[in-house]
Write a structure and sequence with these properties.
CATH topology: Porin
Number of strands: 9
Distance between the termini: 19 Å
Shape: globular
Largest sheet: 9 strands, antiparallel
Order of helices and strands: EEEEEEHEEE
Number of domains: 1
Strand content: over 45%
Number of helices: 1
């Protein structure tokens, strides 16, 4: 029996990350594999704010149908020095002409493409311990050399 309550979301954090250039592994049996380094950035939400630590990456597979499968793993550090591990998996899909505009670094409205991820957070912070037991979803916006991720807790 389906639940009677509708699925609800609450804003959790907004992340803005600066990205390195795309590094291509090449075409594999799974598709075109590539990696994008997550260089730096900031995040802010109702409970925490801070910066992105260097060393994270977004591993991507461009499928034959043009859909981008995303697997990102990186660390946030709050202004109070608390570390938060981020695991994000999702999809970015768009018409070929929209993808070409994104690849050229043009500003493209996020309403013109689909960029969604599921996010899990892990932390040793007692203050933020509830992050360890929640699932979040996000809407992304790709910019020329950065990405903005609006993250929502699934209630």
């Amino acid at each position: 029996m389906p639940p009677t309550d509708p699925l609800a979301l609450a804003p959790l954090v907004t992340i803005e990350a600066s990205l390195g250039p795309i590094v291509s592994v090449g075409r594999t049996p799974r598709g075109h594999v590539r990696m994008v380094a997550i260089l730096a950035g900031t995040f802010e939400g109702p409970e925490a704010r801070g910066r992105i630590l260097p060393g994270g990456a977004d591993w991507q597979e461009v499928r034959p149908d043009g859909v981008l499968e995303i697997r990102a793993h990186y660390l946030l550090e709050t202004d109070a020095g608390e570390a938060i591990e981020v695991h994000s998996e999702g999809l970015r899909a768009a018409a070929p002409e929209v993808l070409a505009r994104i690849e050229r670094g043009e500003i493209v409205s996020p309403g013109e493409y689909y960029f969604r991820t599921a996010i899990r957070l892990t932390t040793a912070s007692a203050r933020l311990a509830r992050y360890n037991s929640l699932l979040a979803v996000a809407r992304g916006e790709r910019r020329a050399k950065s990405v903005v991720i609006s993250v929502f807790e699934v209630l």
